[in-house]
Structures are given as structure tokens and as C-alpha cells.
Amino acid sequence: MSDQSTTSTRVEQPADDVGSGDPAVGTHTVDAETDEQLDESWVEYEFEDDAAISVSDLDVYYGDDHAIDDISMEIPEKSVTALIGPSGCGKSTFLRCLNRMNDRIDSARVEGTVEVGDENIYEGDTDLVQLRKRVGMVFQSPNPFPKSVRDNIAYGPRKHGDLNTGLLGRLLGNDDQQREDELVERCLRQSALWEEVSDRLDDNALGLSGGQQQRLCIARCLAVDPDVILMDEPASALDPVATAKIEDLIEELAEEYTVVVVTHNMQQAARISDQTAVFLTGGQLVEYDQTDKIFENPESDRVEDYVTGKFG
Ligand SMILES: Nc1ncnc2c1ncn2[C@@H]1O[C@H](COP(=O)(O)OP(=O)(O)OP(=O)(O)O)[C@@H](O)[C@H]1O
Fold first, then answer.
1. Region Disordered: start and end of each range (predicted)?
2. Which of 51, 120, 227, 296 could be a cystine partner for 74, CB 3.0 to 4.6 Å?
3. Which helix (H) or strand (E) covers residue 75, if one does?
């Protein structure tokens, strides 16, 4: 975990102010067992670190189904934020809102504000290609391209016109080959894969093990120089050894990048994250605080029941 400076302050405020989205304040957490109590009290979670992402009054609907219910939260930069909660509570939906991947789902409708840096990404003129460069994503199942290890990493920078190598480079005289070599090595080192694949750069990525493929997907994500990396259960398809490598990697990445990770594995959230957001049924954010607090002394009885395995 990175060294985070945060303060939690218990406050009582009128219901109308819940999740009002003051970006300086962070989000609410609640200890409520009923909607009435939920409206009456919450914990402000203030970050001294700058927010990489500020979410205000976010709702998501799939047709008539309300999947995310009025969530406001700040995600501090260069740290690991874990999203946990039972199946179907909206974790992946929320994650996909952070780089507008829900746009790809016809029935999805998103309301509210998501600021990445200073930009509200739900305003009309957002360039989605640039956004997904800044906010990369790693999925549950490793999904490398059926291309060489090298091409997996160079693909994004080539596509964005940052590298003239490969076919285009050959036509132009291969000017950027050395830069590409350096990029490939840097990204593979950053994703703790270099030692294992440095002599296999031209082999098809589909020949790597599942854990290696997932680290390659992380390397591919790093190649376009993101600020934020979203991970949706990145280790759930992997064995314990590969999982441990991914966990170590996530903690290292948080020294340079903002990482938001959905996980079903509460021990994993406790091990790797700086702050944890607990979603419960109905797409509500029930509590959001420093990870130690969530696992050792949560405000909400429902969260305590969940993290101690009494339900979910
Ligand atoms: N593409 C979709 N179309 C319609 N409804 C969807 C879609 N994706 C998710 N939902 C619904 O939205 C709700 C939240 O789903 P989501 O996958 O975000 O939850 P989750 O907490 O990530 O679940 P899990 O842990 O099982 O992956 C669920 O009721 C789900 O059925």
C-alpha cells in the first residue's frame, strides 16, 4: 500500500447534502441499516492527496434497472482503491463509468459527473480514444492480441501515431525502432515480465501462461502512458502464484499510477489497497474509507457482516 494521508470525520448533516459532490470533500459513507438512517448520517472521507477522479451524483440505468444509485466519491491519485461487494451490486458497472466503457452497452444510461483530472468525461466533446489512453483497463480474463509479445505492447503507440515501426516504420525507414525497443523493455519490466519473456518477444502472446498473459495486458496498458489503470478482477482467473505476482505488481504500479481494482477477494482488497469502497445491493456505495478501517472497524453493521463473511 502506498503512504496515504487521509482523515475520516464523523459528521451529521441534512439528507439533502448526501453525495452533493463537493469535490474537495470526497464521498460519504454510511452506517445506516435503513434508508431513513442512511439519510441521517455518514462519514466524510477527506483526502489530503489530490484526486485523480471525482465522481458526483452518479446513476446508471440498464433500461429500467437502476444499477448505480447516486454515488459520489473521490479516488486519490497514486494509490490503490478497491471496490468490493456481493455479486450484482454494481462494481463493474461503476468501474466502466470511469472510462466510459458503458457507452458500448446500448441499454446503459449514465447520469452524473465523472471528472478525470479537470475534465468531466461525460461532457459532449470528450475524445474517447484519448480518454481510454489516460484511463486504461485490464479485464478479468487475459485478452492479449493474437500477435507477438512485442506487437501487443507496440500496438497502442503505433495506432496513436507515437511510434513509426512495424509495417509503417519499414515503409518510413524504421526510424523509431530503438524507441520501440526501449518502450517494450520498460513496459515489460514495469509489469514484472521482462525476465520471463525477453527472449520471446517475437513469439505469439497466446503461448504465454495465463498469469504472463495478464501481466502482458498490464504492460500493454502502460505502453500508452495512462494516468489511471482500471482492473476488473484481474487475478480471478489465475492460480495463487500468478495471483501473488499480480498483487505485488498492483502495489508497485500505485507508486506511479492511480489503480482502481474490483475484486471479490476480500483478503486481496485488504492486502493491496489503500482505500476500499463497499457496494451493497442496489448499486449503493455503503461505506468508503481507509482499507484498515473498513476491515477492522467499519461504521456500518452491514459492511461488518459482509467483510466478516456473514453474508454475501
Ligand atoms: N450489459 C448489461 N445489461 C443489462 N444489465 C446489466 C449489464 N451489466 C450489468 N447489468 C446489471 O447491473 C447490475 C450490476 O451488475 P455489475 O456487473 O455491475 O455488478 P458486479 O457487482 O460487478 O457483479 P459481479 O461481482 O457478479 O461481477 C446487475 O443487476 C446486472 O445484472
1. 1-35
2. 51
3. strand 65-76
Query: Of all helices (H) and strands (E), which one includes residue 292?
Result: helix 291-296
Query: Residue 309: CA atoms inside 13 Å, Cβ hemisphere, count?
Result: 3
In this structure, are residues 247 and 268 in contact, taking their beta carbons and an 8 Å threshold? yes
Contact 59, 234 (CB under 8 A): no
**ipTM tops 0.95:** yes
- Work out the mean pLDDT of the chain and round it to a whole number: 84
Greatest alpha-carbon pair distance for the chain in Å reads 68
Q: Determine whether the shortest distance from the Cβ of 93 to ligand 1 is under 6 A.
A: yes
Count of other CB atoms within 10 angstroms of residue 203: 13
Which atom of ligand 1 approaches the CA of 60 most closely?
A: 12
Q: Is 63 near ligand 1, meaning CB less than 6 Å away? A: no
pTM, to two decimals: 0.85
pLDDT-derived band at 309, boundaries 50, 70, 90? confident
